[in-house]
Specification:
The protein has 124 residues and is mainly alpha-helical. The protein has a single domain (11-108), classed as Helix Hairpins, CATH 1.10.287.1080. It is 66% helix and 0% strand. It is built from 6 helices and no strands. α1 (10-23) packs across α4 (63-87). The chain starts with 9 loop residues before the first helix and ends in a 13-residue tail after the last helix.
Length: 124
């Protein structure tokens, strides 16, 4: 049976992760709460790789460090996808909605080159 999803699609990855969890009977542990807790732990592990680096150093990681960062990002992506699957959230749709919100909150002509919070910009 031929799938209409590319091999690198988010849906294919979701299916692979779901099968991985089901084959190990781990679905019972993958509540949204537990997955969110695992996600924040992985985010903290990612931050540890950048702690104490200068801006320049953070952009010039060694190949070994970059591989370590890639694995942390993979963990973050995995837990994000699993959480969305458990809550029946379409991540692509949610991301597109969020981009639309951000486009409205941060119009380019108003915020160009200025990285403040939305409520810190003066009203026009």
């Amino acid at each position: 049976m031929m799938s209409d999803q590319p091999d690198d699609s988010l849906e294919k990855l979701n299916q692979r992760l779901l099968a991985f969890a089901q084959e190990r009977d781990w679905e019972q542990f993958h509540s949204p709460k537990n997955l969110a807790m695992a996600l924040i732990a992985e985010c903290a592990e990612l931050v540890e790789h950048f702690q104490w680096l200068t801006e320049e150093q953070s952009q010039q990681l060694s190949a070994e460090k970059k591989d370590e960062v890639a694995m942390e990002l993979a963990d973050i992506l995995i837990y994000t996808i699993r959480t969305a699957e458990r809550l029946d959230i379409d991540l692509i749709d949610a991301a597109n909605q969020k981009i639309e919100i951000n486009e409205s909150r941060y119009p380019a002509q108003k915020v160009f080159g200025d990285a403040r919070r939305a409520d810190e910009y003066p009203d026009e």
